[in-house]
Amino acid sequence: MKTETAQKPITNLQGTWELNNGYKMPYLGLGVWKAEDGEEVINAVKWAIDAGYRHIDTAKAYDNEEGVGKGIKASGVDRKELFITSKLWNTDQGYESTLNAFHKTLDRLDTDYLDLYLIHWPVEGKYKDTWRAMEKLYKEGKIKAIGVSNFLEHQLKDLMEDAEIHPMVDQLEFHPWLVQKDLQKFCAENNIQYEAWSPLMQGKAFKNETLKEIGEKYGKTPAQVVLRWDLQNGVITIPKSTSQDHIKSNADLFDFELSEDDMQTINALDRNERIGPDPDNFDF
């Protein structure tokens, strides 16, 4: 059976895919989860932008938005050339508190708009009011695209039931052990762009023998194999690194293409196993 690989162009590090509102989102970016605010995250962002990245993903909960903003300024690249994502934390959910939290995020990032703003987790009883606030900010032009993170199919359906604007992105845990093909299919049918967090399984990908063997065929690392697999599945990916060498290596994905057999082999590693929290059962 053929895998449902993306019929989307994968060309180079600055390549983009179009969201359901027509806004263009780079399909490879830098994640900064656990990157310490200050010099560590400033350097990571600057190195990534210097290497050609144009997509940076942060969140209020990462406590490093200020450093991300400084790294962007230090890069010298025009803000309009960059795609900046942040996420609303759970304790800030609700209509008025979302509006307040958003403006604080802008202040910390030292920018006057976001390219993408996400609801970080589906807090029951709150995410619909939160979404109304995000729709308002979107209509005002303060956010170019709005979406969610960690929403499963039933939560997406519930949100969309009352939403005026459908989510443009759903950022989810996605890696060879957690593929969630049915959720991918649902997102595709509803024009919601799938995006991966923890694509390298918090380092476990480096040790997987199957990924090592596939990498040897292409002269690539297991990390590069997984990130290329993401893109060929039509999934935007944001590997996290604070190492200049790894940041460059993670972007070296555009001189090879995984065969259909290798895509299937990686898909078959799926065991529905999470590394992070379950969106149906979290307590923060």
UniProtKB/TrEMBL annotation:
Pfam family, one: Aldo_ket_red
Ranges for domain NADP-dependent oxidoreductase: 28-270
Key words, A-Z: NADP, Oxidoreductase
Cited InterPro entries: AKR (IPR020471), AKR5G (IPR044500), Aldo/ket_reductase_CS (IPR018170), NAD(P)_OxRdtase_dom_sf (IPR036812), NADP_OxRdtase_dom (IPR023210)
Keyword match Lipid metabolism: no
Presence of the UniProt keyword Secreted in the record: no
CDD domains found in the cross-reference section: AKR_AKR5G1-3
SUPFAM superfamilies registered for this protein in UniProt: NAD(P)-linked oxidoreductase
Record-stated family: Belongs to the aldo/keto reductase family.
Record-given protein name: Aldo/keto reductase
Source organism of this protein record: Leeuwenhoekiella parthenopeia
